[in-house]
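Record minuted for everyone:
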Amino acid sequence: MEFNNPEDKHGIRLANTVAFSMDNVFVPKENLVGEKEGMGLIQAQAVFGATRVMVAAFGLGCGWAALGRAVSYSQGRIQGGGPLSEKQGYTHKLIVPHAVRLEASRAYIEDVAARLDEAGHGLQTEGAIAKWSATEAGNAAAEASIQAMGGYGYVHEMEVEKIKRDVRITQIYEGTNEILEITISRDRWQQHLKSRGQYYIDLAEEMEELHSRDPEVGALASAYALKALGNIFEECRLQKLTRNQHVQMRLGELASWGETAMVFSRKAASEKYSRAVKFDRETWRSMARSYARDATLRIAHDGIKLIMGYGEGDPAALRARVFMDEIMKEQKGQKEDRDLIAQKLKDVFKMT
């Protein structure tokens, strides 16, 4: 057995990793892990739902660890006659969108974790969505937190630059996020085909019904996101665009946005939130609305871009197919919601 030198890593530097090789090592049959030879990959895949939710939680925690420091810092940093926390350009770019995205990821993680507690296994695709959503959000939040703290964000003792280096690994291990995009796309593509295009349309109907009962959780925007997603999948089928691997990956990304928005709307409408949610009911519902707006616009815009870039079509007709006009109307209220969230964040992360 031979060991290489310890790896000098970008982040998680306290985790000592080293490559080693074994030659002519005999493993007795009774010491075989997994009990049956050749089943390792299958056994690993069986628990991906749970292990990827675990990594998703890492991403969520890192993102909030960085963003919370930035929110606290912004209340004491005076610029232009007032604290940064009162500057709309600052909060609406560097703080609020990331807080919203992190809480959407939390809602999805909690949903999948609860389902895993009941089922005990499975939900590999949902685990992939949880990991993709939370680790992308966590990495983006840490990056924004460095910028939000200016030069201090680049200083080691302020910790956010360390968090950024640490959170980056969550997009890589337990399946890179690019692999997860393919995993998500492959499964949802099969669901689309088996249901003859009804998979996302049926989920959209659930959101429309939720909107009729509770119009303040972004369910209508989530419904448009899902209907647009279903039509984008169908257009890709008609034009055979999934022959392009990049199209497959982008469909996985868009599916993650749409399904996370759906779950956040559903969770925000519930009577009771988990103990992990630090925000009051008004704020969390505002966050759900804000995320649904972002998700539905991203799906519609990127879907048209994908189809026009890798296939063909009439832009006006595609805009209608993805409900672009209706989606643009749903953007109304974004300023008020983000103003509210910016104020509530100061209550949760007070200046120390």
